[in-house]
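Moderator note: this is an archived Q&A kept for reference. The question asked for a predicted structure of one protein chain; the sequence and the answer are reproduced below.
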Amino acid sequence: MASLQIPGFGTLTLENLVLDYNGTLAVDGELLPGVRDALNRLSSEMAIYVVTADTFGKAADGLAGVNCRLTVLAPGCQDMAKVNFIKQLGADRTASIGNGRNDALMLADSALGIAVILGEGASMASLKAADIVCTDILSALELLMYPLRLTATLRK
């Protein structure tokens, strides 16, 4: 993504996208329709990472054919693991998308944090930490494909 100046918000230059899997890209462990194509399209503009607790154990299979890197987290302190992951990438160059309580720190520290509300809902902590809230993952991904939508939502 090229740099995008958003009045009252700042300049976004996003090189990385970090996503949760369950509740964000998938429901009950099953990747949602259209997500594979959207992620592969975005992968030509930024590096895609999926960082997950993998509650249902289906992330690797669900992401087959997606140009991304998958990290499955060990139990315990997953919120810290996710925020440390984006800090290693460069939080100021990273957008993140999630829904769970363990995503809140990542959403808050990323240059752009997007919370999604799918079938399993979203934690209040993630909603409060996010810059934007979307009611489906494809709308969230399209914000990155069509960045002027970010300007329309985030400007003062």
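Archived answer notes: The chain has a mean pLDDT of 95.
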